Amino acid sequence: MQEGQRDGTLDAAKAILAYLVILGHCILHGNIDGEGVVDESSILLHSIYAFHMPLFMMISGYLTEGSIRAHGMRIIKKRRKLLKPLFAFAAASCMGSVAVSLASGGFMRGKEGSEGIFPGFASVVSLFAKKFFMNYWFLWAVFYLTVIMALIHRFFYRKRAIAYAVLLLACLFTPDGFNLANYKFMLPFMIVGYEARNLERQNSKWAALLWDRRSFLVSVPLSVLCVACYQSKHLIHETGVNLFSGGGQLAVDAYRVLCGLTVSYSVLFLIRFLYQKGCGAGIWRFLAAVGTYSMELYMVHGYLIQYLLTPIAMKLGIRYVFYSAAAESVAVLLLSGAAIWALKKLRIYPLIWG
Length: 354
Hints:
Blueprint: H1 8-29, H2 43-49, H3 52-71, H4 74-79, H5 83-103, H6 117-134, H7 137-155, H8 160-171, H9 180-201, H10 205-210, H11 213-228, H12 249-277, H13 281-291, H14 294-316, H15 322-345, H16 349-353
Helix pairs in contact: 1-3, 1-12, 1-13, 1-14, 1-15, 3-7, 3-9, 3-12, 5-6, 7-9, 11-12, 14-15
């Protein structure tokens, strides 16, 4: 793939992954009781979470390699564009919270009943900071890991294996708070995607082996086994990374990475195979078009679930089962697409993602 050209396979994969993010969130957060439709230890959620964010990061790593090679350290400046929608969504969410608080007379009231503009202002600043830095952890992971990969490419390219080893080792002994566990867990997948593109560029035999059917036939049963044997009640990215998180954490970390890599590879191989064979070519072209807006779908859908569909469900007294959550996920996908289209028509889109 030439730099600047879009890969239809990757765009189609991103569309599928974006929908699975929406489906996962509908299952976890769509219940009016504030609990998931199914327990987090269910095979259904483990199957979705085993690969959708790891594969997203592998695709990001693959694309990042080309961008770094083309732009060098300037890629950091380009990736700063990710901060623009993060700021816009945090500001919009804060304004909504302030409006609700003003309507209830609570904005001017600080802790322990103290009143005045400053306690309220401090609360808003704190709320904005939390939403800006803590929401959409995946975009922050892409930003931070892109910076790391650019620095490695610039200063340690020929010794990058050593740099990777040092970073991965550091992940085991650094704190997990403030979403750091998620960022650290995504590092191996960024590296794998980056190196896969590097091997492809060099026409390496290892790159050819990646897309050999025999590799896929080995990965499928291993993927099934990894998901079936995942015993944690937590989702794959929620068990921490730091070795001091609990006994056997190193084995847990290794298992989660193995699970993420094998399932992600199996899914991407299957998507690539079907896309290139032209099975349902129109559907794949549609998915590729949708995939170009995967980041926007990722950002918009959460607000639709939180501020629109869940309150409606609460008003109507709807109690979810899987089928209603699946139906909600389709509705969220369509409404998210409609919202993005409306933002384009109103010329607001470039102000957020331009």
